[in-house]
Specification:
The protein has eight helices and 22 strands. It has about 450 residues and is α/β, with parallel strands linked by helices. Strands 1, 3, 5, 7, 9, 11, 13, 15, 16, 18, 19, 21 and 22 form a 13-stranded parallel beta sheet that branches. It has a nine-stranded parallel beta sheet with strand order 2-4-6-8-10-12-14-17-20, with no helix packed on it. Helix 6 packs across helix 8.
Length: about 450
């Protein structure tokens, strides 16, 4: 696989690793769970096992002897993680030390401390501070990266803006294809409020005066970067980005950096849409949403089967509505009631469109929220957190995880299909139970 193609898969790969880590809880090894709006591990606290955390804000000031897996709005590592760190959040900040690998994803990522092995990151912005030290490789996919400090291994980065300002012990492979060094790209925070502050990185590749690359520098860009004399001990290989012409439209194919930015924007819009629908459902019909999630949990196989039935019934219903609309229009037209024929055609079109629109809301959004709520509840239950009973936190956590996994090629398609079938089946089971209950009440009233 080529360097450019491999780099474009980095965000999806990081999301998949995070999701697998969250669900692959080993049964033979002890672990500890924490959850809630705000979780803090005090500086005098030592956790001997692995720690799993889901919180709005998580701060580690103490020591974790095992691995740390954390999901939240803000994840702040001020203390020590002796094992691996796997974290996802709006902000992930490593100010302390990580004894093994760090795999992080989010909007604002920062390494200001020490990581003894590799750093694998995906997000909008990655900052490696000047005083930081990374003992292995750095692999990054996103929009911008400011890489200072000391990196012992190789650096592989793909994005729209990358600045090398520290020491790299191995090779640097950078892809900023299609972006001019002087081009000004509007910051993400200019149209999305309340996001964490991130450094400003000039578009394209920049190599600082203090940078030192002990291996080779290989980079793809729209224009050659200004590389200070002596900054690269090995060779410098520049590949000019030449966009291929598409056969259908004859327009330039977007650069890897542009495609990466569009990918993140699509995922962000998907996440925001799910959160808005989730907030609406948990505000208006929270009990109904939880009941559907319970149907999936207690009857997974029946839900899956009834989901297939629901799709088949919808297809038949749409066909019947179309046939009925055509037949009524023809019949009233034949008996010279032209005015009624036109009105029946319009009415049939409205009913058919409304039915299709309603079903599309169910399978595209409602089913996703039902599965997301169930995922959040199961995780908080495994962590023995009271947040399981919260109206909002299971939905928020589940939606974030659902958005991550559905962004992964192939696996995301399978996850969406499974959510649709399970969610529609849960709605079908709820509807059958509701009808049965009404029939029982009617029979009791008649007797």
């Amino acid at each position: 696989m080529s360097r450019n193609r491999r780099a474009r898969w980095l965000p999806a790969f990081a999301g998949l690793i995070l999701l697998l880590a969250l669900f692959a809880v080993p049964t033979a090894q002890a672990f500890e769970g924490r959850g809630g709006d705000s979780v803090t591990i005090r500086s005098d606290e030592v956790i001997e096992d692995d720690l799993y955390v889901a919180a709005g804000e998580f701060t580690l000031d103490g020591t974790i002897k095992g691995d740390l897996i954390a999901v939240g709005g803000t994840v702040r590592i001020n203390g020590t993680v002796e094992g691996d760190l796997i974290a996802a959040g709006q902000s992930v900040l490593i100010n302390g030390s990580v004894g093994d690998d760090a795999r992080i994803a989010g909007f604002a990522l920062a390494v200001q401390g020490d990581v003894d092995d590799d750093v694998v990151a995906a997000g909008y912005s990655l900052e490696v501070g000047a005083e930081s030290s990374i003992g292995g490789d750095v692999i990054y996919g996103g929009y911008q990266a400011l890489l200072g400090g000391d990196v012992s291994g190789d650096v592989t980065a793909s994005g729209g803006a990358v600045e090398l300002a520290g020491t790299i012990g191995g090779n640097a492979t950078i892809d900023v294809g299609g972006i001019d060094p002087g081009e000004q790209v509007p910051p993400f925070t200019s149209f999305v409020p309340n996001l964490p502050a991130v450094p400003t990185v000039r578009a394209g590749l920049s190599v600082g005066e203090q940078a030192g690359i002990k291996g080779d520098l290989n980079y793809t860009a729209n224009a050659a970067a200004a590389v200070p004399t002596g900054a690269v001990a090995g060779g410098v290989e520049f590949s000019r980005y030449v966009p291929a012409e598409t056969e259908a439209e004859g327009r330039p194919t977007p650069s890897p950096a542009v495609r990466t930015g569009r990918w993140f924007l699509r995922q962000f819009r998907h996440l925001v849409s799910l959160l808005l629908i989730g907030v609406l459902m948990m505000w208006v019909v929270p009990d109904w949403t939880r009941k559907l999630a319970r149907n999936v949990e207690t009857q997974p196989l029946p839900s899956l089967g009834w989901g297939v039935v629901a799709i088949a019934v919808f297809a038949v219903l749409m066909a019947l509505l179309l046939i009925a609309t055509v037949l009524l229009t023809v019949v009233f037209g034949v008996v010279t009631l032209g005015g009624l024929a036109g009105r029946f055609a319009v009415l049939g079109g409205i009913v058919t469109s409304a039915t299709g629109f309603s079903f599309s809301l169910l399978w595209r959004y409602v089913t996703a929220i039902v599965i997301a709520v169930l995922i959040g509840q199961l995780i908080f239950r495994a962590l023995k957190s009271p947040a399981e009973q919260s109206r909002w936190w299971p939905m928020v956590l589940g939606v974030v995880l659902f958005a991550i996994v559905t962004a992964v090629p192939v696996l995301g398609w399978l996850a969406r299909l499974g959510a649709i079938l399970l969610g529609l089946g849960a709605i079908w089971i709820w509807g059958r139970a509701l009808l049965a209950s009404r029939e029982e009440h009617q029979a009791a009233a008649e007797s």
